[in-house]
Amino acid sequence: MAEDPHAYGERRILRTELRWASLVALLVVAIVGIVFYTAVSLGMNPPSNVERIDPKTLHLDGEFAEHNLGTTVTPQGGVVARIVATQFEFLPRCIPVPSDTRVTLRFSSPDVIHGILVTGTNVNTMVIPGYVAQVHTVFKKTGDLLMPCHEYCGLGHSEMWATVQVVPQNEFKPGSDGRYVCAQH
Amino acid sequence: MSVRNTEKLCLAHFWVAFAAFVIAAILGVYQMWVRSPLGAKVGSPSLYFLSVTAHGTAMAYVLTTFFIMGFGYFVAVSALDRPLPGRVWAWLAYWLALVGVITATVTVLAGRASVLFTFYPPLTGSPFYYIGLVLVVVGSWVWCGIMIAAMTAWKRENPGVPVPLAMFATVANAVLWLWTTVGVAVELLFQVIPSAFGWTQTVDVGFSRTLFSWTLHAIVYFWLIPAYIAFYTMVPRAAGGRLYSDTMGRLTFILFLLYSLPVGMHHLFMDPEHGNGLKFIQMLLTVFVSVPTLLTIFTITASLEIAGRLRGGRGWFGWIAALPWERPMVLAVGLAFVMLGFGGFGGLINMSYGMNAMIHNTSWVTAHFHLIFGGSVVIMYFAIAYQIWPQLTGREHASLRPLRLQLWLWFIGMMVMTLPWHYLGLQGQWRRVANFDYTNPIIASWGPWVVVSLIGGIILLASALLFARNLIVLHRSAAVASIRPLFALAVHPPERVPAALNGFGLWNALVLILMIGAYAYPIAQFFITPSPSAMVHRMD
After folding, report:
1. Global pTM?
2. Is A122 in contact with A137 (CB distance < 8 Å)?
3. Which residues of B touch A55 (CB under 8 A)?
4. I want to staple B195 with a disulfide (CB 3.0 to 4.6 A). Which of A48, B301, B473, B536 is the partner?
5. Sign of the CA dihedral B201, B204, B205, B209?
6. Chain centroid, CA B80 distance in Å
7. Is A5–B241 a contact, with Cβ atoms under 8 angstroms apart?
8. How far is CA B264 from CA A131, A132, B283, B530, in A?
9. What share of chain A is helix, strand, coil (3-state, %, to 5)?
10. Within a domain: residue A37?
11. What is the three-state SS of B31-84?
12. Does A36 lie in the same domain as A87?
């Protein structure tokens, strides 16, 4: 066997290597298969809506003007939260959402690159000036979750975070002015 | 085999690389300390981000580029056994790159470029930081030319003879680097530097991210290939055996050239400027990057088995115990493979398209690249330095014990630092933060693990200092080095190889095709449907 390396022919060595390579090929096919299956059957895709918006006029009017920010319920009953990520805060700073409901989070930046994640969930996206970043999710647990800015955006980056307040469906109600705001506690 | 009067050239490069490394290791510990519950009241964000920029720049651009250039010159004269062509050019490139390093460093230390080493626009620092980086890259391009010229001249003198594997791999890296730098060079010259000088007021951020992604993955393979050269050519020799297959070595380096380039967009999975289809295509290509590494693990393990059995090892595992673990190169490869295993597993999660959302921009990612690059690759830089330093200085290590201690400390420190980071990343601890608010209950629960990782960082710093000490001691050692062969023979040394395995013409054509397939549309879309640009934000 392997005691005498000279006994091997190069051909035999390559055959052994090929056998290993076919195992590697199987592994690659399996990984691609799993990724493809979860992408198609579970809709596990990264946030990729490619929706352009001018960062220089973001705040003036349109979807990300101040009065449109925060959580809204569409006439069809969908929950949409619009959030501006800017140096060095999120507007609004607290986002109320109902649990066990499909929620759409829409972000945009008027200045530099930001990014968000929500701790304890798979919610994650970059927020690139020039684009609307959009994530769909269902929050399963109630409570306050941290939503920090996760891309370096300047010296105040570490102070930039917001709260996602997940409340039970039956407690998710607008205030007297028709707006959804976080409960203080 | 001699080093033909390139000792000074090689040592000059290595000492710049390792000086930057030691300084960056000190900064790394400072950063971990102020992020931990123990240092929560010290430091300031401006100092922290200055430090992170300096740490990243020193480790990712200075340590790597200077080490790779110095090692390339060493391989060109020792593996080809002929004088280095263009020595004057090599020295010019060295001084150019060194001026670049000093320019960038001074700018960072002055607090005028705290943009981190990834410098994502529209955050923009002083133009001198970017100009410094460009000078380093231009110096490395000269190195690429010298490597290609050395191989071409050798082939002319030795028609039909296979290029020695170490040099074949070095030129593969030079070719890879020329392709790799195109993306970041275009970004710097056409977007970042004009806006840093104030000539342009806006920048297309999606486009700049796409250009940077072109460079961002392949650059890691540029850093990694010297470690693989050591795996294939120095490890089997140091272990007292032979390389199992020279052909697989050549294939591996060709696969790195092909598959490390058209995959950079896996760094943009979470970005809104590209659609799912494009991301999926590059995800598919990314999976193939695992192939050369898995082939290498097999071939090198087989080579080590040959060595172990030649040394009298028996049975399924007896050959492992029979290996000469007291030799730094053999110890380093064992430790490197363990770190490569953990790091590779983490990398599979990163590239997995959907699963990436779980860990994107968390400490998991920081852990991944510290384990793969800082762990597997840099430990091989140490082993290479220990191995070739006697040839460069004519002096021998008086004792191998402090060398082994240093390698063990590096391995232990890296594991203690990065395993908690992986866990914290899964918990959602995000990256690039100057200080955490440990009064928040979620963040408070991370505290103990942050302290554990800080201990790992301190062990790493001890190892870095011991490394510098070991080399300095060697410079003063009384023992005279005996010149030993460095590069392993294959079990069947190739007498003839197909032209495709002896040059890069065909592979360059394939890279071009793959890059057109992977990047033509992602880049073209910024011209077909221009995106609204963002205002430049100056940091200086």
Report:
1. 0.96
2. yes
3. 532, 534-535
4. B536
5. negative
6. 24
7. yes
8. 20, 22, 9, 21
9. 25, 30, 45
10. yes
11. HHHHHCHHHCCCCCHHHHHHHHHHHHHHHHHHHHHHHHHHHHHHHHHHHHCCCC
12. no
| Tokens 């000490």, residue located | B469
Residues in CB range of B22: below 8 A, 6 or more apart: B464, B465, B467, B468
| A100 located within any domain | yes
ipTM: 0.92
Q: Kindly state whether residues A32 and A115 are assigned to the same domain.
A: no
The answer to whether the Cβ–Cβ distance between B274 and A48 falls below 8 Å is yes
> Which residue range forms the structural domain that includes residue A142?
51-171
Residues of chain B numbered 324-363 and touching chain A (CB < 8 Å)? 348, 352-358, 360-362
The answer to whether residues A104 and A85 belong to one domain is yes
Q: What is the predicted pLDDT for the residue at A10?
A: 78
Distance CA B209, CA B120 (A): 7
Segment A58-105, tens digit of pLDDT: 988 899 999 999 999 998 888 999 999 999 999 999 999 999 999 999
Please report the beta strands in B194-271, taking only residues with DSSP state E, as ranges in sequence order.
Answer: 202-203
Q: Do the beta carbons of residue A104 and residue A79 sit within 8 Å? A: yes
Task: For residue range B500-540, list pLDDT tens digits in order.
Answer: 999 999 999 999 999 999 999 999 999 999 899 999 999 88
Find the CB nearest A155 among B114, B248, B440: B114
- Residue the block writes with tokens 């005279």: B480
Domains of chain B: 7-538 (1.20.210.10)
Q: Which two tokens stand for residue B370?
A: 């510290």
- With contacts defined as CB-CB under 8 Å, which chain B residues touch A21? 291, 295
Element (H, E) at A108: strand A102-108
Count of structural domains, chain A: 2
Cα–Cα distances in angstroms (integers) from residue B83 to residues A15, B151, B498, in the given order:
38, 11, 26
